[in-house]
Amino acid sequence: MSLDKQFKNLEARPVRTLVVWVLVAVLICGIGSIAATSMGFFTDAVATAKKEFSGSAMLKKYEWFKDAAEQIRKKKADVTMYQSRIDRFGSIDNLDRTDRESLMVWEQELLGVRASLNGLVAEYNAQSSKFNWSAFDTNESVPTFFETN
Hints:
With 149 residues, the chain is mostly helical. The protein folds into 2 domains: 1-53; 55-136.
């Protein structure tokens, strides 16, 4: 082998070695970056699950459902009460001025109670359809859905 060939082989080997090591380093950095990103994703997922499904969070959600269900039942009873008053006055033919004023006030109050009921029912139904609130779908004392009348 000639001396020139040996020098060319010596010059090519370190360049090849350097290129291989650079590629290996880039590959290791890429894999490390993917792993770190994945770990961050899973860490956030675990933290979110702990926050949403912890005992205290579940108790708070259950209590909200119980309170909202009772408020809805109360507002429905109020609607029935106002409607019966209005119907009773509606059956009387000759109402004096004070009775007509009372009737108009009760009609306005009935509209306000119905609007409040509709808002609470909409919020209740929206919450019960969410994944992180769906654990309460099985209890009859906490219905999964309310309808407005």
